[in-house]
Design goal:
Elements lengths: L4 E4 L5 E4 L18 E4 L14 H5 L10
Antiparallel strand pairs: 1-2, 2-3
Bound molecules: FE2/S2 (inorganic) cluster.
FE2/S2 (inorganic) cluster binds next to helix 1.
Amino acid sequence: MAETTITPLDDGPYLVKGPVKLVDADGNEFQVPGKTVALCRCGNSNTKPLCDGTHVTIGFKSKDRAGG
Ligand code: FES
């Protein structure tokens, strides 16, 4: 089974690489293009739960590191 990796990008979204099924609270599946998904972390995307790049224009800042 392939591994799925979730990376909080510096000042950006959660990048999800690998097999993933993205569903809403009712269990309905979102159509996601490709095998990599960028999930909004700033809370301001107009295409939630997907990132639409708005984090850049609002100046979202976050640099999460494991073990820190
Ligand atoms: S993280 Fe990209 S729009 Fe929110």
